[in-house]
Amino acid sequence: MSETLSVTEVVRNFAEYVNRVAYRRESFVLVRGNKAVAEIRPLPSGRLVGELPGLVSSLPRLDDADQFAADLDAARDELRRLEVPDPWQS
């Protein structure tokens, strides 16, 4: 829900309200003469679903999946062989 503020209040403390929108993701309705005239709200973040095909096509190709799987298995085996000390043991 948006908080209602006078335009004068926002002008006097503009940086504060911009920071609240940017960092706290708050929204404000600006009122002049008891009439809502504008809204300050965060821009949507993330990407649109329609951008997904282009994003996926821009990713590097995995040409040798079998070698990649073998590398992952080797890395997992190596991690199992390592003795990791208990950080809580004194």
Overall description:
The protein has four helices and three strands, in the order E-H-H-E-E-H-H. The chain has a domain of 38 residues: YefM-like fold, CATH 3.40.1620. The model has no long low-confidence stretch (mean pLDDT 90). The chain has a three-stranded mixed beta sheet with strand order 1-2-3.
Short structural summary:
With 90 residues, the chain is α+β, with helices and mostly antiparallel strands. The chain contains four helices and three strands, in the order E-H-H-E-E-H-H.
SSE topology sketch:
Elements: E1 3-6, H1 7-12, H2 14-24, E2 28-32, E3 35-40, H3 52-58, H4 65-81
Parallel strand pairs: 1-2
Antiparallel strand pairs: 2-3
The CATH top-level class label of the domain at 3-40 = Alpha Beta
Q: Examine the secondary-structure arrangement and name the CATH architecture of the domain at 3-40.
A: 3-Layer(aba) Sandwich
The helix-strand sequence is: EHHEEHH
Q: Specify the helix fraction band.
A: 40-55%
**Total E-strand runs:** 3
Strand content: 15-25%
Arrangement of strands in the largest sheet: 1-2-3
Query: What would you report as the Rg, rounded to the nearest angstrom?
Result: 26 Å
Low-confidence stretches: none
List keywords for this structure.
90 residues; alpha+beta; YefM-like fold; three-stranded mixed beta sheet; 4 helices; 3 strands
